[in-house]
């Protein structure tokens, strides 16, 4: 199993090297893959959503299916055409080759623009991995269904479909001052994409999925004991359906696996930290993201929650021209930050947050 986890880390690091500031998209999508969950990317066009799924497919040696959906997309374009030869014999059969039915991964772009016929078919695929084709029940081999959209549906009839994508990430354009690095990374991706070779196979993905399932069930009491209180507290900020809540332990262990954490290294601290990070992928909309950031700031381990409060206090002191007190507080904050940086669990999970705190402290110190 450790060899498999090492391959997962290699997959994640390869993707990180190909995409610019795409850490959440990469980590969340791999988390979804290893628990056979549906995953949706929400954001404007041109943010590399399709390239991400294509790259994952190549690295995992997976067959993938892509379709841009519109109101005019025919159901045959998704599940396959009627077999004309069989039809002439009086038999109604469909050719499923090269359709979503035979794919390992499927990316459905602008999924909420599809016709009602496709949307109804997608519900059974997302829920049961089957399609009801005439009088036949056809198993769908698709392991993970990826959705992509530039909008969150307001229509009531689409809410059930949206809820079947419980893991979500909001993509966005790079900032103007990030253009140079973005262009360099984008050109490297264009050059290296065709050279990508598999690191894992789908058989190994399935084996890893079995491990994650077994780990959660064999350690259910411990896992649930430490994850549930955090989720329960989060529900005061963000609504999560019962269906999704039940699967959070699986998401957390998959997330830890994506980070390369071995079974023997999963302890209370990593379970709690993993839960805090996974909750970001369970938000419904951008307003929920603000709620998540607020929740995270008050629930981070060690000194990090205290540091967030201190940063706000220092800002207030500078605004009120209490500069000598602000200097002392900044000194105290740096000492706490050094302790946080020295803690391996805190550093591993919250490096980005600590870098943001450090950057803010440096900016505040420059004002004194």
Automatic annotation (TrEMBL):
Q: Which Pfam families match?
A: bpMoxR
Q: Sorted alphabetically, which CDD domains does this protein's record hold?
A: AAA (cd00009)
Q: Which domain of life is it from?
A: Archaea
Q: Which residues form the AAA+ ATPase domain?
A: 35-175
Q: Specify the protein name.
A: ATPase associated with various cellular activities, AAA_5
């Amino acid at each position: 199993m450790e060899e498999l986890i090492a391959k997962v880390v290699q997959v994640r690091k390869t993707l990180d090297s190909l995409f610019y500031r795409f850490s959440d998209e990469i980590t969340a999508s791999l988390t979804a893959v290893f628990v056979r969950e549906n995953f949706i990317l929400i954001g404007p066009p041109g943010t590399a959503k399709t390239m991400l799924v294509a790259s994952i497919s190549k690295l995992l040696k997976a067959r993938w299916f892509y379709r841009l959906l519109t109101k005019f997309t025919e159901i045959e374009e998704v599940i396959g055409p009627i077999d004309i030869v069989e039809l002439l014999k009086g038999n109604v059969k469909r050719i499923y080759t090269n359709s979503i039915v035979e794919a390992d991964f499927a990316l459905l772009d602008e999924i909420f623009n599809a016709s009602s016929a496709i949307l109804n078919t997608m519900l059974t695929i997302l829920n049961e991995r089957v399609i009801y084709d005439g009088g036949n029940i056809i198993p769908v081999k698709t392991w993970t269904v990826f959705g992509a959209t530039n909008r969150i549906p307001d229509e009531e009839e689409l809410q059930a479909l949206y809820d079947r994508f419980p893991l979500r990430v909001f993509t966005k354009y790079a900032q103007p001052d990030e253009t140079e690095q973005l262009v360099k990374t984008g050109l490297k991706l264009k050059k290296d994409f065709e050279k990508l070779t598999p690191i894992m196979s789908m058989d190994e993905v399935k084996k890893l999925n079995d491990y994650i399932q077994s780990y959660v069930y064999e350690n259910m009491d411990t896992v649930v004991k430490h994850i549930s209180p955090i989720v329960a507290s989060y529900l005061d900020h963000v609504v999560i359906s019962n269906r999704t809540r039940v699967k959070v332990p699986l998401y957390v262990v998959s997330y830890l696996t994506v980070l390369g954490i071995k079974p023997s290294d999963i302890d209370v601290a990593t379970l709690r930290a993993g839960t805090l990070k996974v909750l970001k992928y369970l938000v419904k909309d951008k307003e929920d993201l603000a709620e998540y950031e607020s929740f995270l700031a008050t629930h981070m381990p060690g000194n990090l929650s205290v540091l967030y409060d201190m940063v706000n206090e220092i800002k207030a002191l500078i605004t009120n021209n209490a500069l000598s007190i602000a200097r002392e507080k900044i000194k105290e904050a740096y000492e706490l930050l050094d302790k946080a940086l020295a803690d391996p669990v805190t550093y591993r999970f919250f490096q980005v947050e600590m870098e943001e705190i450090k950057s803010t402290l440096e900016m505040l110190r420059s004002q004194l």
